[in-house]
Amino acid sequence: MNIVVLTGAGVSAESGINTFRDSNGLWENHDIMEVASPEGFAKNPELVLDFYNKRRKQLLEVQPNAAHKALAQLEKNHAVTIITQNVDDLHERAGSTNVVHLHGELLKVRSTGNETTVLEWKKDLNLGDCCDENHQLRPHVVWFGEMVPMMDEAMKHVSEADILIIVGTSMQVYPAAGLLQFASENVPIYFVDPNPSISSSERVSVFAEKASTGVPKVISEIENAPYNE
Ligand code: APR
C-alpha cells in the first residue's frame, strides 16, 4: 500500500512542542506575523533570529513520541510518505525516511541572497552569520506570504496515495489544507486529532484523540482492513 501521512503541530504536542492555534494565535507568546513573516524579519531581525534560536534549542531537548515511532514502523510493510507542516525533525529521528517538510526545517538555514544555498545548522544563528557570498543567513522556514516550494511534490504524493492518514492539524492553513482535494475519490482517510476539524463520513474515519493513542489504532485498523489482503 502507498500510504501518505499529513501531519501538523499536534503530532509533536506530546513531545513538548506547543501547537499554534491552541494558544490564541500566539506562537510561544509572539504574534505569528512578528516572528514568521518576511515583514517581521525586516523589522526586527534580531528578535526573529532569537525566536528561532530558542525553538532550535528546545527541539534538541525533546524526543519523538509514540505517534512518530508508530508512523516510522509503518515503513516495514508499506511505502510511506510523510508530508509534515512541522519544522521539527522528530519524524526523521523516529526513523521515517521519506519526509517532505512543507514549511521548511528548523535545523537548516539558507542564504538571504541565494535561496538555493541551504546549510545544516544546529547552533544559534546570529546577525553577521553569512554564506560564502557574504549574505546574511536566515532560518530555512516558510514564512507567511512566502511560496511553499514543496507543494508540487506534496500534491503528487497525495494524488498517488492508496490511503491517507492525517494527524494533529487544524487544517486551517493553505495551501496544506487544500492537499486533500488531490486525493483519488475512493481513498480512505483516517484523521487523528482530539479536536477534529473534519467529521466522520463514509470515506473519513475520525479518531478524536491524542496522536500517541490514535495513530497506533489507525495503523492496526489499516493492517486488518480487507483492502490490505
Ligand atoms: N495529538 C494530536 N493532535 C493534537 C494534539 C495531540 N496530542 N494536541 C493538539 N492537537 C491538535 C489540535 O486539536 C489542532 O487541531 O493539533 C492541531 C494543531 O493545529 P495548529 O496549531 O493549527 O497546527 P497546524 O495545523 O500544524 O498549523 C499549520 O500553521 O502557523 C502555521 O506554519 C505553521 O505549520 C503551521 C501551520
Automatic annotation (TrEMBL):
Which PROSITE patterns does the protein's record reference? SIRTUIN (PS50305)
Q: Which GO terms describe its cellular component?
A: cytoplasm
Q: Where in the cell is it found?
A: Cytoplasm
Can you tell which superkingdom this protein's organism belongs to?
Answer: Bacteria
Q: Catalysed reaction per UniProt?
A: N(6)-acetyl-L-lysyl-[protein] + NAD(+) + H2O = 2''-O-acetyl-ADP-D-ribose + nicotinamide + L-lysyl-[protein]; N(6)-succinyl-L-lysyl-[protein] + NAD(+) + H2O = 2''-O-succinyl-ADP-D-ribose + nicotinamide + L-lysyl-[protein]
The residues covered by the Deacetylase sirtuin-type domain are 1-225
Does the keyword section mention Transcription? no
* Active site, per annotation: 103 (proton acceptor)
Which residues are substrate-binding? 52, 55
Q: Where, in this chain's numbering, is NAD(+) bound?
A: 8-27, 85-88, 168-170, 195-197, 211
Query: What are the protein's UniProt keywords?
Result: Cytoplasm, NAD, Transferase
Write down the EC number.
2.3.1.286
**Pfam family, any one:** SIR2
Q: Which GO terms describe its molecular function?
A: histone deacetylase activity, NAD-dependent; NAD+ binding; protein-malonyllysine demalonylase activity; protein-succinyllysine desuccinylase activity
InterPro entries registered for this protein in UniProt? DHS-like_NAD/FAD-binding_dom (IPR029035), NAD-dep_sirtuin_deacylases (IPR050134), Sirtuin (IPR003000), Sirtuin_cat_small_dom_sf (IPR026591), Sirtuin_class_III (IPR027546), Ssirtuin_cat_dom (IPR026590)
Spell out the HAMAP family in the cross-references: Sirtuin_ClassIII
Family of this protein: Belongs to the sirtuin family. Class III subfamily.
Q: What role does this protein play? A: NAD-dependent lysine deacetylase and desuccinylase that specifically removes acetyl and succinyl groups on target proteins. Modulates the activities of several proteins which are inactive in their acylated form.
Q: What is known of its domains?
A: 2 residues (Tyr-52 and Arg-55) present in a large hydrophobic pocket are probably involved in substrate specificity. They are important for desuccinylation activity, but dispensable for deacetylation activity.
Stored PANTHER family: NAD-DEPENDENT PROTEIN DEACYLASE, NAD-DEPENDENT PROTEIN DEACYLASE SIRTUIN-5, MITOCHONDRIAL-RELATED
Specify the protein name. Answer: NAD-dependent protein deacylase
Query: Which organism does this sequence originate in?
Result: Marixanthomonas spongiae
Gene that codes for this?
Answer: cobB
